[in-house]
Fold this protein.
Amino acid sequence: MLPKIFMIHTPLARLPWRSALFFLCALSFSPLCSKSKTTANTTYVYTPKKPVVLTPQQHLLMLSQSWDSIQTLRTDLIQKNPNGTCMKADLYLRRPGEMRLVYHAPSQVQMIALQGKLIHYDGRRNRSQSMDLSRSPVAFLLQGKLHDHVQLVEMIHHDARITLVMKIKKDPNAGKFGLTFNPALLKNPLLCPLTGWFMTDAYGKTTTITLSNTIKNGPMPKGTFELQKK
């Protein structure tokens, strides 16, 4: 025998109007309530984007473009020589082609880059020597489109710095040099990303340069790039 089912028929018209209104609202909101429960139980997973990793050649191109934005540069310099001694100097640079490096006392040495020549002047002996600028690693500081003139050998990461090790395409047997820079400053038009460099000659002797207090695209007084004898 089937169980009896009792149904209560309550015509909507007999319900008080407030109860009828509540009844209709409950029916209309019931689907929304079920959706909200489903949404509340949903778990969203955030997947961060992978960092962009540049190749050594891309780093070289960006450094070259950043360096090309430099018209003038003035910086303090510390030079560590192959024999372990250190020297301080002031470096003045105007691209393309002009540079003056003045060593602090007791040294009386100046190095001038002008008209395609690199002049080494010793004030104690009052003697100067010159060489073709293109054969010196200094040339990479003074020319445009660095990436067109060098061959990339290696990229070294250390702390927040990167060093790109290169050879000059025209004279690969002359040695190698490395540019050390801060990659976070590559896209900053107001700052110079270069923090130093090293040069290793054909005999394996390395000279290391560290830069500080660098001023980019500042004014250069008249006569800055002239040989000043004392």
User: Anything to note?
Assistant: Residues 4-10, 20-39 have pLDDT under 50 and may be disordered. The two ends are 126 Å apart (CA to CA). Residues 56-216 form a domain with the outer membrane lipoprotein receptor (LolB), chain A fold (CATH 2.50.20.10). The longest strand covers residues 206-216.
